[in-house]
Amino acid sequence: MSRVGKNPVVIPQGVDLQVAGQTVTAKGKLGQLSMSVNPDVTIAVEGGKATVTPIGTSQRARTQWGTARNRLNALVRGVSEGYSKALEINGVGYRAAVQGKVLTLQLGYSHDVVFPIPDDVKIVCERPTAINVSGADKQRVGEIAAKIRSYRPPEPYKGKGIKYATETVLRKEGKKK
């Protein structure tokens, strides 16, 4: 039995969840998202809760049970609350700025790194050294944040680079004489 899969997904007020075959569509204040569910599980919506049940007792059906439940929960939470990832920039002269639909990063290269902002994600720079990526799709927000971080990952000696706000960079001591 899946401990995660047994729990029903609570559908908050203002979210409309439609199940058509193996496709689930959620509409909320932050937009509309849909996902396709593995054929080994079924989703039923009743009384403001969605339950995921496996079809059969095969190993594959039991593994997909908890996965489908968590993906459905991320879908519902995304259209109602949304997701966000915070990034921090450390380094002398390193900064970021949003100009229209473009994120411009100055990361110590001979040129500025220009990142076009996709339509489904919102990027805000509160300070020149802080970037906040937010959106309805959890996977897409994480993907965009990882792409921005990949332009200059934090290095272990001085800690320079782009890191997640919750990330701790393990620092090395460096050379001794």
TrEMBL record:
GO terms for molecular function: rRNA binding; structural constituent of ribosome. It holds the Pfam family Ribosomal_L6. Keywords: Ribonucleoprotein, Ribosomal protein, RNA-binding, rRNA-binding. Residues 11-82, 91-164 form the Large ribosomal subunit protein uL6 alpha-beta domain. Transmembrane segments: none annotated. It comes from the Bacteria. One of its GO terms (biological process) is cytoplasmic translation. The keyword Ribonucleoprotein applies. One of its GO terms (cellular component) is cytosolic large ribosomal subunit. InterPro entries: Ribosomal_uL6-like, Ribosomal_uL6-like_a/b-dom_sf, Ribosomal_uL6_a/b-dom, Ribosomal_uL6_bac-type, Ribosomal_uL6_CS. Part of the 50S ribosomal subunit. Belongs to the universal ribosomal protein uL6 family. This protein binds to the 23S rRNA, and is important in its secondary structure. It is located near the subunit interface in the base of the L7/L12 stalk, and near the tRNA binding site of the peptidyltransferase center. NCBIfam families: L6_bact (TIGR03654). This is Large ribosomal subunit protein uL6. The gene is rplF.
